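Incident log, support desk, overnight shift.

02:14 A customer reports that sequence design results differ from what the structure should imply. Their input is reproduced verbatim below. On-call engineer (initials T.W.) acknowledged and began investigating.
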């Protein structure tokens, strides 16, 4: 206990991340490394000032962790950063800059009693300006970081044009207090009941991105040929990442289809495309599950504050080959919507409940893949063109993780495929991306095509 300081328990999102770091050899596993490069040259002195002003406006930069006995808690104090460095690559190469980004992303960050963010103000080899940061996932998720970058740049242009500063951000501490009220609540009990019913269904099937051979190999190790799960616990996990672009023409075609068919976004298209790839490489398996990663930012306070609110839940669907593309979309959308209502339950509690009903240990699972869809635009298009990127921190807590994001506000989407490179190859990520694109466009152009027909394309 720190005298005069209010401490709070870790949120369920933070608990999940804390455990990922604790049980990984590579402590960088919870580093979130991103950049935004402006296609113009900015005044560096003003950019430094804007960054410092923005940090003062986001109370998540005041989060510090502290041990209270055997428990880890957090408190809010002055907003600060581990380092703020101006880095000039104007006389270097883009390869040198990218290697620097990768190295910093993989560098361990202290988490007790210390600020958990590093910032670098960049001049690129082309003379363009930008921001590169490494932020602990314990204090911010990618949603918050995107809005933080927007705030920095909005402040910069306000300073340059002698205009009032943009509207203040919301308090994450207030959001955290409300979130902590969930524990022990009637709503939590209802969510537990929902997931218990979900796990009373027949045992799921292990669908690894490498294909059915992974389950067969694990079956041989366990000497149980009928086994339906596999190993997912890897301490020494190193990761690679592939960034692939989905063109704005493809995106526009998908968006029109979603709008015409009453879907709120094209997320469900990617969920189905990903599900179909996992089904195909696992012998056209009809029972497929993976983790759906959601940001849980529904209220205004949640949307415009820092912190980390990411949760995961198992998204499982059973689809026969004669089901049509549009039927598959509707089933997946309805299933996700039903589960999302109960996604506030601590992901670790969901995993524990699953293991209560199914014959798996904490080292095993039915899922080895995850997908998140978060195409947030920085909204800077009227001021300057830009390019935003996400970088691997060199480690991974999930064997295969697909992240779909807006990269530059042009209408393209950036699809990131992060994978444990000791067991998954680059070619797998490339095949997954191309199949997803092909499958989605085939269904968009012919909604009555069967899933079995898509498998043969």
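02:41 Re-run completed on a clean worker. Output:
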């Amino acid at each position: 206990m720190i005298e005069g300081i209010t401490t709070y328990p870790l949120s369920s999102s933070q608990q999940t991340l804390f455990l990922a770091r604790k049980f990984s050899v590579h402590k960088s596993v919870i580093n979130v490394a991103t950049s935004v490069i402006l296609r113009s040259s900015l005044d560096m002195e003003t950019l430094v000032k804007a960054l410092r002003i923005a940090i003062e406006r986001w109370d998540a930069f005041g989060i510090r962790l502290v041990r209270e006995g055997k428990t880890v808690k957090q408190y809010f104090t002055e907003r600060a950063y581990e380092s703020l460095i101006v880095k000039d690559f104007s006389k270097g190469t883009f390869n040198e800059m990218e290697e620097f980004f990768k190295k910093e992303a993989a560098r361990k960050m202290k988490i007790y009693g210390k600020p958990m963010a590093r910032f670098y103000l960049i001049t690129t080899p082309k003379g363009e300006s930008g921001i590169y940061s490494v932020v602990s996932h314990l204090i911010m998720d990618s949603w918050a970081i995107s809005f933080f970058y927007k705030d920095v740049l909005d402040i910069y242009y306000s300073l340059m044009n002698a205009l009032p500063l943009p509207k203040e951000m919301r308090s994450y501490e207030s959001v955290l207090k409300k979130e902590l009220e969930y524990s022990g609540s009637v709503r939590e009990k209802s969510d537990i009941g929902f997931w218990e019913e979900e796990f009373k269904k027949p045992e799921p099937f292990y669908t690894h991105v490498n294909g059915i051979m992974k389950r067969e190999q694990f079956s041989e190790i366990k000497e149980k040929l009928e086994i339906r799960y596999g190993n997912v616990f890897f301490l020494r996990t190193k990761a690679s990442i592939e960034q692939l672009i989905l063109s704005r023409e493809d995106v526009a075609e998908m968006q029109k289809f979603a709008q015409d068919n009453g879907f709120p976004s094209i997320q469900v298209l990617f969920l189905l495309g990903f599900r179909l790839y996992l089904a195909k490489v696992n012998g056209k398996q009809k029972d497929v599950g993976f983790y759906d990663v959601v940001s849980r930012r529904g209220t205004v306070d949640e949307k415009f504050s820092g912190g980390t609110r990411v949760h995961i839940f198992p998204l499982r669907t059973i689809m026969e080959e004669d089901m049509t593309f549009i039927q598959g979309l509707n089933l997946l959308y309805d299933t996700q919507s039903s589960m999302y209502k109960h996604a506030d339950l601590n992901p670790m509690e969901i995993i524990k409940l699953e293991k209560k009903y199914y014959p798996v240990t904490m080292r095993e699972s039915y899922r080895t893949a995850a997908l998140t869809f978060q195409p947030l635009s920085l909204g800077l298009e009227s001021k300057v063109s830009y390019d935003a990127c996400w970088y691997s921190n060199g480690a991974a807590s999930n064997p295969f993780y697909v992240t779909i994001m807006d990269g530059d506000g042009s209408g393209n989407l950036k699809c990131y495929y992060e994978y444990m490179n000791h067991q998954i190859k680059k070619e797998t990520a490339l095949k997954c991306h191309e199949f997803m694109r092909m499958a989605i466009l085939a269904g968009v152009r012919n909604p009555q095509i069967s899933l079995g027909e898509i498998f043969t394309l």
